[in-house]
Write a structure and sequence with these properties.
514 residues; single chain; alpha/beta; 16 strands; TIM Barrel; 4 domains; binds zinc ion; binds 3-methyl-2-oxobutanoic acid
Length: 514
């Protein structure tokens, strides 16, 4: 079977999606999980775009050794130099240089002639090649480019030293037949195309990203680029879990394999959803919570008689098998730490102890602690910063009567160590909490989005709140969990403020993350 390389861009194209802002510790956590999933390449960020991106790419390159780590760069020396600074310690330094090639981008965005674009691309690749052994070159908006011009520019960048050629459908405009035909055309017309890797990169604006990516593979693509859960700009990128499982389940038709450890899919998807705060639609293929749920009587009857009547993928294939026994308030430290190991967490004793304290508090209020609850407890510890300035919520109190405006009173410890109590009213209890917490923030806050979901099942389930807000026009997402929805909401709001503080802090000081 032909091997298709998986290039994951969750931390770059995925992170570009509206409202997503991951901090360095969270990006490292996702990168580690992508390594376990077995992706060939991790695009960890765009080092020249911000100090935060630079730091994340550098630290991921120093941490991850099982997957190649790359960074995005515009076709200019300063971007390539910055990317080299971030990646020089990587096990296998790889750079991803891009330049637009479609008439509309060349004329209106770059304001360059096609000849100038060829020259800039060739110069950039030659310059990158002096530093990096692996140079990927992308023709941004390739699908809307003139195919003859694509052949011309790709011929030249291959000669200049590119080792991978990426052909993106940047605006998600292609149909499967057209995108496949473009790959066939390039395979037939570009000199030396068989000596480089040919890569597909699809966006999902018309809902055809998965079909387009598969069409590219059928017509010669050696590598596919995408994100976990299909995160990304606008309608997102192709969802890598869909490609991997489609190729696996229909290997009889395709005959390709990705080498991904499919059993890590569910875990990777959950981690990305938890850390980005982007909820997965319930009917999402492969990883949606209803993807294996059979509701109608006829389907349930069929499933009982023979699961193959309605089930083409088993939950076990993606690591979503039946939950092990739930832990409860009588469970000891030993069972707790054993479960952390079985669930794949590597926590220091200090973090494991902190997670155990949270577990005991929760177990006093909740009868059974499920796998989903534990997942949240362990992940929260794994991504804790040390020594960074944060607000800590110590108390939240709501006074509510049907006839009166609710009042919230919040006590929090400030980054200076000082404890403050603030109080405010609002039209509803949540608004009262948000108005109260706003008093702790210096800038102007706007709430852009607010959601509460339950982590597990049952009336005592944990609540997860996600708040998307802007502080002085900077958009930040905060999230946190608690058994009470109001407490979860207050903690999520504070989490957003803390992220803002940590972002500022990261730019000044090396973050300690053991
Ligand atoms: O969609 C796109 O064209 C991109 C490039 C930077 C590769 O993300
Ligand atoms: Zn893209």
């Amino acid at each position: 079977m032909r091997k298709i390389d998986i290039f994951d861009t969750t931390l770059r194209d995925g992170e570009q999606a509206a409202g997503i802002n991951l901090n360095t510790a969270e990006k490292i956590e996702i990168a580690r999980q992508l390594e376990k999933l077995g992706v060939t390449i991790i695009e960890a960020g765009f080092p020249a775009s911000s100090p935060g991106d630079f730091e994340a790419v550098q630290r991921i390159a120093n941490t991850v050794k099982g997957s190649t780590v790359t960074g995005l760069a515009r076709a200019m020396k300063s971007d390539i130099d910055r990317t080299w600074e971030a990646l020089r310690q990587a096990a296998q330094p790889h750079i991803h240089v891009f330049l637009a090639t479609s008439p509309i981008h060349m004329e209106h965005k770059l304001m360059k002639t096609p000849d100038q674009v060829v020259e800039i691309a060739v110069e950039a690749v030659k310059y990158a090649k002096k530093k990096f052994s692996l140079v990927q070159w992308s023709a941004e908006d390739a699908f809307r480019s003139d195919p003859e011009f694509l052949v011309r520019i790709i011929n030249q960048v291959i000669q200049a030293g590119a080792t991978t050629i990426n052909v993106p459908d940047t605006v998600g405009y292609a149909t499967p037949a057209e995108y496949g035909a473009l790959f066939k055309y390039l395979k037939e017309n570009v000199t030396g195309i068989d000596k480089v890797k040919l890569s597909a990169h699809c966006h999902d604006d018309l809902g055809m990203a998965t079909a387009n990516t598969i069409a590219a593979i059928e017509n010669g693509a050696d590598q596919v680029e995408g994100t976990i859960n299909g995160l990304g700009e606008r309608a997102g990128n192709v969802a890598l879990e869909e490609i991997a499982v489609a190729l696996h389940i229909r290997k009889d038709v395709y005959g390709f394999e990705t080498g991904l450890n499919l059993q890590e899919i569910k875990r990777t998807s959950q981690l990305v959803s938890q850390l980005t705060g982007v909820v997965i639609q319930p009917n999402k293929a492969i990883v949606g919570k209803n993807a294996f749920a059979h509701e109608s009587g006829i389907h349930q009857d069929g499933m009982l008689k023979n699961p193959e009547t309605y089930e083409i993928i088993t939950p076990a294939l993606i690591g979503a098998a039946v939950e092990p026994l739930a832990l409860g308030k009588h469970s000891g430290r030993h069972a707790f730490s054993d479960r952390a190991i079985t669930m794949g967490f590597e926590l220091s004793d200090e973090k494991l102890n902190a997670a155990f304290v949270e577990f005991k508090k929760l177990a006093d209020r909740k009868k059974e602690i499920t796998e989903d609850d534990l997942y949240v407890l362990f992940t929260n510890q794994q991504i804790q910063y040390k020594d960074s300035p944060v607000y800590k919520l110590t108390n939240v109190q709501i006074q509510y009567e049907t006839e009166d405006a609710p009042t919230a009173t919040v006590t929090a410890v400030l980054p200076s160590g000082e404890s403050v109590t603030v109080s405010e009213t609002g039209a509803g209890s949540v608004e009262a909490i948000f108005n109260t917490l706003e008093k702790l923030v210096k800038g102007k806050v706007h709430i852009l989005d607010y959601r509460v979901t339950s982590i597990s099942k049952g009336r005592d389930a944990l609540a997860e709140a996600v708040v998307n807000l802007s502080i002085d026009d900077q958009v930040i997402t905060g999230r946190d969990t608690a058994q009470d929805v109001l407490e979860a909401s207050a903690k999520a709001y504070l989490n957003a403020i803390n992220r803002q503080l940590v972002n500022e802090y990261v730019q000044e000081k090396e973050v300690i993350n053991d």
